[in-house]
Design goal:
By secondary structure, this protein is an alpha/beta fold. Helices cover 42% and strands 15% of the residues. The chain is built from 7 helices and 4 strands; from the N terminus they run H-E-H-E-H-H-E-H-E-H-H. It has a 4-stranded parallel sheet with strand order 1-2-3-4.
């Protein structure tokens, strides 16, 4: 459930949306595999309880970076303190799988800052980690915020891939 971030809904709205899947669409969420997108800023214990109650198997959350200056360049409203609290909530839930997303190629991101984000991510032992290159489309808000920098995405991708493989993750 995504294409937007459902956890930005209030708990009442999220419950109503999950009820639509079960009651109106006839999806037995206890038997069907399901995944939901979450934001560090909007996930709460109450919303995780709803996700658990509906049998959603996976929560996917966009961390993007563990460095505030980098998330600000992405226009993301989160700090490492907020992210840690959110990941702790998910990690201690009964949801069996959780994914954390990271973005490489952020303006001013270095090998050292990328490794810092990777290290912080694997410390939580997520079942999956998705690495996304930064795509900066012309005339978007993000393109107006970004400055010109050296394109180091391929190098950072390779560093991330090798680091995760070395730490027991499998590339799919």
């Amino acid at each position: 459930i995504g294409g937007g971030t459902p956890t930005f809904l209030s708990a009442k709205e999220l419950a109503r949306m999950l009820a639509i899947f079960k009651n109106d669409l006839g999806v037995n969420t206890q038997l069907k595999y399901g995944s939901i997108e979450a934001s560090p800023k909007s996930i709460t214990a109450e919303k995780i309880q709803l996700i658990e109650a509906y049998g959603i198997n996976r929560i996917s959350m966009g961390v993007q970076s563990w460095i505030t200056a980098e998330t600000k360049l992405l226009g993301r409203p989160q700090t490492p303190v907020i992210v840690r609290k959110a990941v702790d909530l998910i990690k201690t839930s009964s949801v069996p799988e959780f994914n954390l997303d990271l973005i490489y190629g952020i303006y001013s991101q270095t090998k050292a800052s990328w490794l810092y984000s990777l290290e912080n991510t694997i410390a939580y032992e997520p079942t999956e980690i998705f690495l996304y290159p930064l795509y900066n489309r012309p005339l978007t808000g993000l393109s107006k915020m970004q400055q010109t920098s050296v394109d180091n995405r391929l190098e950072l991708y390779r560093i991330g891939r090798d680091f995760l493989k070395k730490n027991g993750y499998i590339q799919t």
